[in-house]
Amino acid sequence: MGEIKQKSGDLLTELDNAYKLLRKTQEELIIKEKLSIAGGLAAGVAHELRNSLNIIGISVQYLHDKFNPGDERREFTEAIMNKVEKLNSVTTDLIHFARPQNPRFKKGNIHKILDRTISLVKFKCIVQKVSVVRAYAANLPLIEIDNELMEQVALNLIDNALWAMHEREKLIISTMIFPENYFIEIKFTDTGCGISRKDISRIFDPFFTLRENGTGLGLSIVHRIVEEHKGSIEVESKLKKGTTFKIRLPISQKE
Ligand SMILES: Nc1ncnc2c1ncn2[C@@H]1O[C@H](COP(=O)(O)OP(=O)(O)OP(=O)(O)O)[C@@H](O)[C@H]1O
Ligand SMILES: [Mg+2]
């Protein structure tokens, strides 16, 4: 009797695990589907936008040069040029998102990529008085990655963390190698505003944003790049306490 109970208990646990795996796979498929639909839309919109922005940009630049310094009309044209630039950068985001380049894998140094990305946001960190703490593993091996794409991953995650934090808070970036040596892990832990339970399932959706000037594409780009590297990304968050993004990447891209 006890044996039967034990066996059926085991079977139930197995069934439960299989169900959880199925749920997870289904959720991943839904994310993929959403990404590909949004990708197609984004490509069309981005092209239209870029062409129009080009014409607006050239025309306003022409007008701008006609006005003398001190002329208030020059300020207006300058304001338009700034906005055109902002829209151009959003469009570049969209184009990147819609038509990603194929990753070019090379043996790369994750710490160098992280350092380079941190130096890109150094000024922002100084202004915000945020300290970036590096807790790097001493023995991290080189891994097969696309340097540029991985820099984009780091930049998006750091940018989000800085947005989430107040002054004088802390961002910890740590790396580690798994004992069996097949995977490495990179963690970005901030002490920012955190993400509510309601929102956390949506943060990887394209165009989901709670930021005033956000496009909502950062994390969906991150998600896709990590996937292209056969890696995984997880998020843990506590409202008003902070958020951790955990990325695992295989050392080699070969099966
Ligand atoms: N570290 C974080 N802490 C708290 N909320 C976060 C964090 N990272 C992401 N989020 C939430 O997830 C949303 C989506 O992030 P995502 O990077 O995709 O877009 P975005 O930052 O709003 O815009 P952008 O396209 O400029 O990156 C954010 O608007 C924010 O609400
Ligand atoms: Mg972002």
Write up what this structure looks like.
Helices cover 56% and strands 17% of the residues. A hairpin with a 3-residue loop joins strand 6 (232-238) and strand 7. It contains seven helices and seven strands; from the N terminus they run ααβααββαββααββ. The radius of gyration is 23 Å and the shape is elongated. Helix 1 (2-66) packs antiparallel against helix 2, helix 3 (110-120) crosses helix 5 and helix 5 runs antiparallel to helix 7 (218-228). The protein folds into two domains: 1-99; 106-250, Histidine kinase-like ATPase, C-terminal domain (Heat Shock Protein 90). Bound molecules: adenosine-5'-triphosphate and magnesium ion (MG). Residues 156, 159-160, 218 line the site of magnesium ion.
Which labels suit this protein?
binds magnesium ion; two-stranded antiparallel ribbon; Heat Shock Protein 90; 5-stranded mixed beta sheet; 255 residues; alpha+beta; binds adenosine-5'-triphosphate
Strands in their spatial order, largest beta sheet: 2-4-5-7-6
By CATH reckoning, the class of the largest domain would read Alpha Beta
Question: How many β-strand stretches?
Answer: 7
User: From the structure provided, what is the oligomeric state, counting identical versus distinct chains?
Assistant: single chain
Q: Provide the CATH architecture of the largest domain.
A: 2-Layer Sandwich
Which percent range fits the helix content? 55-70%
The fraction of residues assigned to DSSP E strands is: 15-25%
- Largest β-sheet summary: 5 strands, mixed
What is the element string, with H for helices and E for strands? HHEHHEEHEEHHEE
CA-CA gap between termini: 45 Å
